[in-house]
Amino acid sequence: MRTIRLSSIPVLAAFAAVMTFAVWQPAYALQSTAGQDIKQAGQDTKDAAKKTGHAVEKGTKTAAHDTKKGTVKAYDKSKEGTEKAADKTKEGTKTAAHDTKKGTVKAYDKTKEGTKKVVHGTAKGTEKAADKVEDKTEPKPTPQ
């Protein structure tokens, strides 16, 4: 049997302590790592949610800006079209009024000319009728 020297006991105790720590350390490290992994997963999820929220916010702002820009562009085009239509209507109305005036003057002249002819014809007809009546106004000889 061997005898153990007392001087080797502290070395053995130190060795036993180191070995005990080495044996338990992986289990402790695994528990610690699992907790840290869960914590890290939670942090990653939180970060991803933040990034998604920021991306949605940015997309919403961009969409709102583009919608506003499109609305202003549509408004400008509508306004431009309305002004163009108003100008064309104004121009057409002036042309129609001018043509109506021209037609009215022409109709007036034709009516005036026709009226003069009718009056002249009526005067001639009245004169002719008066001549016929004049001939008939003399007393007819009475038959005896």
UniProtKB/TrEMBL annotation:
It comes from the Bacteria. It comes from Acidicapsa dinghuensis. Residues 44-116, 125-144 have a biased composition (Basic and acidic residues). Residues 36-144 are annotated as: Disordered. This is Uncharacterized protein. Keywords: Signal. Residues 1-29 form the signal peptide. InterPro entries: Synuclein (IPR001058).
